Amino acid sequence: MSNCTPFVATLVLAIQFQAALGASQALSATSTAGGPAPPAVSRVFAGTVAGKVTDERTGEAIVGVHVSVVGTALATVTDANGQYRITGVAAGNVMLRLRRIGYQAPPDRPITVVDNGTVTVDFTLAMAPLSLDALVVTGTPGGTQVRAIGNAVDRLDMAAAAELSPAVNVQQLLGQRSTGVISLPNSGMVGTGSAIRIRGAVSLSLTSQPLIYVDGVRVDNNPSAGPNIRQGRQASRLNDFDPEDIESMEIIKGPAAATLYGTEASNGVIQIITKRGKSGKPELSVTAREGRNWLNNAEQRLRYVYGVNPNTQQVDSVNLIAHWRSLTGEEIFTTGAMHGVDASLSGGTDAVRYYVSGDYLDNTGLVDYNWQKNAGLRANMSLLPSSNWSVNVTTAFARNETRFAQAADQFGVWEMLVYGSPALFNSATQGFRYANPTVASQVDSRSKINRFTGGVEIKHEPLPWLTHQLKAGADIGMTTNQILFARPAAEYATFYGARSVGEKTLEQVNANYTTLDYAITAKAPLFGFETSTSVGAQYYRKQTTFTSEFGRNFPTADVTTIGGAATTQAGEDYVENKTLGFYVQEQLGWKDRLYLTAALRGDGNSAFGRDFKAAYYPKFSATWVLSDEPFFNVGAVNTVRLRGAWGQAGQQPDAYDAVTLYAPSTGPGDSPIVTPGSLGNPTLKPERSTELELGIDLGFWNDRVTATYTRYDRRTRDAIVRQPVLPSEGFPGVRVVNLGEVKAWGNELSVNARVLEGNTLSWDLGVNYATAKNRIESLGGLPPIVLSASQEHRVGYPVGGSWSQKVLSASFTPTGAPTNAMCDGGVEANHAPVPCADAPKVYWGQPTPTWQGSVINTFTVMRNLRLSALVDFQGGMLYEDGEIQAGHQNFRNTAQSNRGDDPIFAAYQTLVPRAPLGFFDAGFAKLRELSVSYTVPSSVVRRFGMQRASISGAWRNVGLVWQAQDQIWGTKLFDSEMRTPGSELGSRYQTMIPPASQVVFTLRTSF
Amino acid sequence: MIPTLSTASGETAAMTHRIRSARRGAAAAALMLSTQLLAACGGILDVDLPGRVREESLDNPVLAPTLVNSAQADFECAYGEFVYSTGAWANEFLNSSGGAEVIGWGARLPNYESGNGTCQTTTSTRGAFAVYLPLQIARSQADGAIARLEGFTDAQVANRALLIATAALYSGFTHALLGEAYCEMALSPTEPLVSRTQVLTRAEERFTKAIETATSVTGANATNVLNAARVGRARVRLGLNRLTEAATDAALVPANFVYNATYSGATFRRNNPVFLVNNANFHLSVAPEYRGLTVDGTADPRVPVTNANRQGQDALTPLWLQGKYTAITSPIPLATWDEAQLILAEARGGQEAVDAINRIRARYSLPAFGGGDAETIRAQIIEERRRTLFLTGHRVGDQLRYGIPFATGTNQKGVAYGVATCLPLPPAESDARG
User: Fold this and answer.
1) Is there a contact between A582 and B52 if contact means CB atoms under 8 Å apart?
2) Which of A452, A899, B163, B250 is an S-S bond match for B344, by CB 3.0 to 4.6 Å?
3) CA–CA separation, A703 vs A698, rounded Å?
4) What span, in angstroms and rounded, lies between the C-alpha atoms of A81 and B434?
């Protein structure tokens, strides 16, 4: 579908550049005797370097510090005691380098290694939220220091976060810990997840989900997996990974940073870096968890439902949780138990290090038929066969199974509750809608995945100035989804409709991702600059095979196999996408304080139209550590870094959007037929986002207070628009065209402060705040694009804005019908009232937050006890609560719909769409986490043969701190943090089980 | 950063040489690797499409029967959707769904934007009503099949004439349904909207092609196509008020002839959607006007309706089930002798009309109609059509043609009926044309 010929120019350019630089470097080396040159190290005599690394403030050993011998591949990581040991170090003068996320990087320390001797070098490290010397591996070829990168990179110490957080999956752990990054709300069912948004959602038609890599291997980032239950597929593949295995995360947030990832990367990239082994004796770590899930204050928060009680013929109201208790003596929602254990073994020598872990999680949700059982194994190995070769092998296997509390429409316990009515008291449902809660438990919807993720990274330093590395990896997920309606007992058959004879849907989804990534980097001095030239090639392949089987009409309740059904159907689909990209990057560094970078990426993709060959994405960035200049002397300010980046990245169309296709199907007499599937666009190309990012990093009082600020402006051109196909063309759906243009902008501020510092009490404060706005600049002349009954893309307004008529006034007729309804006449009428029948839709709000952030306070008492509270907040978005809307309009089971005394409300009931009956300002602030952790003193744990032990207790989703709006037309919201999980832009949700509260107690030990 | 060490000038020169050599080696290695990658690039981005068919693949004479089967399948899908959707529009059905979609469509609300859904592909509840788009797909498929078949030769395609006749038959019915239910519509993405008369005229042309082509072929299949086309042409000629010609076609249809749209359990798309949406999913309930109908005290078997003694999907509306289609595999009559007789009755009137009505009644063992003045007979024809053609997609066209008022006031949910009569042209068609 495409070819690579256009890449020749890129590659030739790269190779010529590299060769030219080689000559320049040679010239430089010749003419600058005494200047920079590779270290002179003995290849014959060798010794050992060892020591211990501790926290400057607490004196605690620091685990996971990366210790390396500069200019060689010799490196290790400190163990649980903070100790390290590197053997085979060439005798003579060498430099030791230490790096650890969250700590200031000390200057490289010169040491002298003696042949066959051991040099002991201890270090103390100071905490430093603003570490410019930390190593970043995402978005740069081979990795580089923060100070050399012109864009913002968030580096999250997830291992540290996990010690305090009650999170049981990656998404909860990520939470709102990174500025401008949101884990969107998901259902209160255990085993569910949702999408992640970085700097909002600005694509008109494509996914806004960032790319996700695990140790350099691209993995399935589908936030909408699992069976297609009520409100869609709700499992997130990100949550297949065990949070205890994660050492850190790196997040790059936009096209300016993600240029080297090319097509698909405009939504940003999240890199998960898993734990590695440390040289030294084997260390066994065991973490045990015990927790509980519950729906906090459910009965008090659930709205009463109204209706005419058939026994009294009067409007009555009822709380159906209490009602069910009175009927059966049972609770609808119960407290689910969570048990989890993680064990890891790590250790090794300087040449071979290993990290092996296993985990198991048994988690039960708000009803006993909602559960997840996750088990995983990981084996990571690092090999150093020689001083200039290193090999990292990462493997992980996960086997996760979830049973959901929802299935098809009409079979979810929440919809039975919120759509119930006293009018149904005498029906078989006993006041509930559709059926009673017992029926909800009889439907078995579940998902099971067996997933392997693994990769090999080979690094080679043939010369001190030349490195190259090859990464190869695969992510293979085999998912089985099921929705089973076993043939019900006779007394329940009436609730099942067509499914009263039994029905089962089975799906197998095999998603395979393949990654090949090669990069070569040469570094050399040039006219006083340090130059770094990189050339790389990347190949990605995604294959998804989807098979489905359907069976209906089982002979008995015991028969539940598809083969046992009287009527069966089957289906199969296959989707494949490939990307091949090349890049070249040149970086100039001056005295470790000024860096200039230029890069160009070229991509071919199988989804591009046949008339579009390749996409090219340039990038430029600059960063200046002003505070490192000799002239800098500004009182309390110790760190100032200015940075700026301009770059492009793309977002590819869906796999087959460029091709006109017919779909095979079944015709008369079971004959094979073809039916129009999709109209292709042979000129289709990726949408291209261009971003300018400017920022400043500041440190005060020796980095006791740090602040980072970033401003970004992004413009997406050739935005992919799904242009509705004229039905008279004889094809369904849309034609995908590059017509749109979207502008997005925002500000990101992060402040970290050590407010108090002392041996008995210290207080750390972290604040993140971000804004994210967007506006559609063009739809290529198309009329507004309708996404749903109440959401549209319109020029001049945010992506996916909510649009509906707005009633300004109305009155009642003598019979009680609304009349004289006057609506907002819109912009063209200067918002003057017009009859609603003639009124246009007007803008109500946007579907994504325009501001968000978090505040985390951590108190450390006597160095061993830590208390932490995390509040996160977001606002500026308008959601549509479909439950309340339907209650007002369809089911008329709200107080207002039964009172019928508001003519404006009544007028809305006659409008289509009636979305304003569910619109609400969805801003909120939540006390997300409260936690306490106690590190048992070493003197105590050693008595039990342990090296380290800590216990913690944490409470997640403690409660709402603030709600922008708590009721809609008098009907109270259960929770503002609700959203259809799999929806890209949808602001309407319905019948979602609200977020649960969770308490987890954790015991961590290491031996 | 690479540490720097002082070196003597001789060492520098040697190192310079080593660096230069190594760089050249690295450059050469990178070039070789890149060249290898580029050499492989020709096909490296090719992907498989095992589950889909490229458009150009259809220009193959071997696929001629598949093209016609495809046209039939898309028509049958559209027809089933048309039957229950227009049933809800013309009050054969009441909405008994909690879905706003059904409420809006059933109440014919003026700003309701639908009819552009696709055929049923799952067992779940109804999404958007699917009328206009499935009909347009069916039209495109049938006309496309005719064009491709006429580009092939008899040597390439066995039974080419019968295949052309069959495709023309389905094209004719597609145009007939569009013309009867919509006030204006499109027959091409590049041409202006056309009127009902223009579309019915196009339907007549297609039926004529089917009749002429089928006449040249022998065999039962050809005869069935021929008679179905006669019913179809009589139907559209009635709509064009060309009564004599309509009666001529109708009179040629043999007694008790039935040409069905077929359905099966093979896929959801092949299910009888009338049964699915009423009897299985409970989103529609048979309207009161069709419950318990009798003829002089005899239950009318043409309108079999039973009380389910439960509520519909909305848990509010009493559910009444149609019994005309008893399973998801039940066929829906498309062209029948019954309809031909009713056309004959309307076209000729008088005693001939009474005789035609009674021939139908006799078939259903119903008491005979005694006749009356012209107005009585005409009213009876309309009533006989309402019953005989129950849930066959005729009612909306009859209401428009006869000027029968659509429902007014509020429905059983308290939703006020809109004023629309013709089916609404979906915005996807109208908005793009300004």
Assistant:
1) no
2) B250
3) 8
4) 74
User: Across the interface, do A730 and B144 touch by the CB < 8 Å criterion?
Assistant: yes
Instruction: Write out pLDDT tens, residues A951-990.
Output: 999 999 999 999 999 999 999 999 999 888 778 888 999 8
d(CA A545, CA A576): 9
DSSP B279: I
| Burial class for A312, CB neighbours closer than 10 Å (0-12, 13-18, 19+) | exposed
3-state SS, one letter per residue, for A886-915: HHHHCCCCCHHHHHCCCHHHHHHHHCCCCH
In this prediction, residue A21 carries a pLDDT of 43
Q: Report how many Cβ contacts below 8 Å link chain A to chain B.
A: 313
Pairwise pLDDT comparison (A94 vs B387), residue with the higher score = B387
> Is B382 touching A (CB cutoff 8 A)?
no
Contacts of B282 in chain A (CB under 8 A): 497
Q: What is the largest CA-CA distance in chain B?
A: 126
Contact B19 A25 (CB under 8 A): yes
CB A78 within 8 A of CB A67: yes
In B167-304, the DSSP E strands lie at 184-185, 194-195, 258-261, 284-286, 294-295, 298-299
* pLDDT tier, A163 (very low <50, low <70, confident <90, very high otherwise): confident
Quickly tell me which residue has 């470790």 as its tokens: A592
Give me the pLDDT at residue A448, please: 97
Question: Which residues in chain A touch residue B425, judged by CB atoms under 8 angstroms apart?
Answer: none
Residue B6: closest CA among chain A residues belongs to which residue?
A: A34
Instruction: Check residue A809 and give its pLDDT.
Output: 95
Chain B residues whose CB is inside 8 A of the A522 CB are: 23, 26
Residue B123 near chain A (CB below 8 Å): yes
For an interface test with A, the pick among B45, B109, B184 (most A C-beta atoms closer than 10 Å) comes out as B45
The residue of chain A nearest to residue B9, with distances taken between CA atoms, is A33
Q: What is the pTM of this model?
A: 0.82
Tell me the shortest Cα–Cα distance from B242 to chain A, in angstroms: 28
| Contact present, A985 and A800 (Cβ < 8 Å) | yes
N- to C-terminal Cα distance for chain A?
56
Has residue B31 got a pLDDT over 70? no
Contact B23 A660 (CB under 8 A): no
Cross-chain Cβ contact B73/A667 below 8 Å: yes
Q: Say if residue A372's pLDDT is above 80.
A: yes
Least confident residue range of A132-141, A664-673, A823-832, A947-956:
A132-141
Inter-residue contact A911 to B107 (CB < 8 Å): no
